[in-house]
Write a structure and sequence with these properties.
Helix content: over 70%
CATH class of the largest domain: Mainly Alpha
Number of domains: 2
Distance between the termini: 14 Å
Radius of gyration: 22 Å
Structural class: mainly alpha
Order of helices and strands: EEHHHHHHHEHHHHHHHHHHH
CATH architecture of the largest domain: Up-down Bundle
Number of helices: 18
Length: 445
């Protein structure tokens, strides 16, 4: 597979991107979500990500069960999940690393780090030396590179897959995450119950190892530019300037915060409160409602990924967000349980499409030489989730769950409409800067 300079020349910053050329798309591939695996070496990028996600989701459920049995404290169990976000603040710095160093080798080292952590915990378990604080240290250490892994996967995906098929790759990636959360959690819990903590962590370690082997098959993406000789502050400033000068990126990054703030709290902590207060459901019912939302999100992601082409990811994102938050207003009316579950599926479907469109828009707009920094800065939007959880929890405690759903849905709907007015480029196709020069992927393909 040949290598070439993307764009055929150095840019104004003396940047050269050495990247494998994606193979041309076939004329008619139907709606098979796996069709994107034909491009370049994306099959190795995806398989490495999928195996890692399975290991991560199994690890979280296994450690949560261990902490619960050891302490009986729901608060300490919740701390395991909260520590997953410990590395998010380093997102912009990780984005700079992705733009500065060989992306393939960075991911290999991330995978090796995961294997070493899993081996360390497995050794502690087999020698009966595992203590509670070990679990927290392992989760925290893993979270410090988790955000780097997310930015790397997104950058490597855009390197391997041409622009016109990015929605298929991101849809497949998102559905893989949703599937891992459902199946990985079940597998982890089942192995823990039937075979014990030691065998559960042996399986997790094997998954991390297989993920590392898959990452070794990915082609190197070497980025050489002036960024190697400037300070971290200057490199990050360059990424921020590119975002500000682009028509689409500020709006897309705003939405990355909005959906975390207004929509994701429903299924990332508040579903238990909603199910218990509105419908008096037990653990099984709560789990089924959460699974309904996840299945809806998976279906939405696969539906969008199955489309042959998306002319305007921004427009798709805005429409999806309107549907997403409008359904929240309907959920706030507390309909019968069967209708609530149906609406929750539609809510998840709209959310899956919105999220995929948002990521596709970001990857299309960001050229290869600044893509890591753009996605790293975007990662800060995740902090909308804890803010939304705190606000939602406060409203639910003071005024009830229905008021909480309606308030977050109303804020999200108004913010969506306001963002569409502030950034009209979201409703068009590519930005002026992208349309005038062509995106990196379009120039390659």
């Amino acid at each position: 597979m040949g290598r070439e300079r993307i764009g055929g020349m150095f840019d104004s910053e003396n940047t050269e991107i050495i990247s494998p050329r994606p193979e041309p798309a076939t004329a008619n591939m139907g709606r098979n979500p796996f069709r994107v695996l034909q491009f370049g070496d994306y099959k190795f990028v995806w398989s490495s990500e999928a195996l890692s996600l399975w290991a991560i989701e199994m690890e979280i459920i296994v450690l949560s069960m261990f902490v619960l049995r050891d302490t009986g404290s729901p608060l300490l169990v919740g701390l395991v999940g909260a520590l997953k976000f410990a590395g998010t603040l380093l997102g912009p710095l990780y984005g700079l690393m992705v733009d500065r160093f060989d992306r393939k080798m960075l991911q290999v080292w991330v995978r090796v780090f995961g294997v070493l952590l899993a081996l360390a915990l497995t050794l502690l378990i087999l020698t009966d030396a595992l203590q509670l604080w070990h679990a927290y240290v392992i989760v925290t250490a893993g979270s410090m590179v988790r955000m780097l892994d997310i930015v790397l996967v997104q950058a490597l995906t855009a390197d391997a897959v041409p622009s016109h098929s990015l929605h298929g790759a991101i849809g497949l990636s998102r559905s893989t995450l949703d599937g891992a959360r459902v199946i990985g959690s079940i597998a982890g819990g089942t192995i823990f119950e039937l075979l014990g903590l030691d065998w559960a962590y042996i399986v997790i370690t094997v998954l991390y190892l297989l993920s590392t082997l898959a990452s070794l098959k990915v082609e190197s993406r070497i980025v050489t530019s002036k960024i190697n000789s400037v300070s971290i502050r200057a490199g990050l400033g360059e990424g921020l300037r590119y975002i500000r000068q682009n028509d689409l990126l500020p709006g897309l990054i705003f939405f990355s915060f909005l959906i975390e703030f207004s929509a994701f709290p429903i299924v990332n902590g508040l579903m238990t409160v909603i199910s218990d207060e509105l419908y008096d459901l037990g653990g099984t019912g709560i789990g089924l409602l959460a699974a309904t939302a996840s299945i809806g999100a998976l279906t939405g992601a696969l539906t969008l990924g199955g489309k042959q082409h998306i002319a305007s990811p921004g427009r798709t994102m805005v429409v999806g967000s309107i549907v997403w938050h409008t359904v929240m207003l309907l959920l706030a009316l507390t309909p019968p349980l069967w209708l609530f579950a149906l609406l929750l599926f539609i809510w998840g479907f709209g959310g899956g499409m919105t999220f995929v469109a948002m990521v596709v828009g970001l990857l299309r707009e960001a050229p290869a030489e600044t893509r890591g920094r753009v996605m790293g800065i975007r990662s800060l939007g995740i902090y909308g989730l804890p803010i939304g959880l705190l606000l939602g929890g406060f409203i639910a405690e003071e005024a009830g769950s229905a008021a909480m759903i309606g308030t977050l849905g109303g804020i999200g709907l108004l913010a969506t409409l306001g963002a569409a007015l502030k950034w009209p480029a979201l409703l068009r196709g590519a930005s002026r800067s992208a349309s005038s020069t062509g995106t990196t992927e379009d120039r390659v393909s």
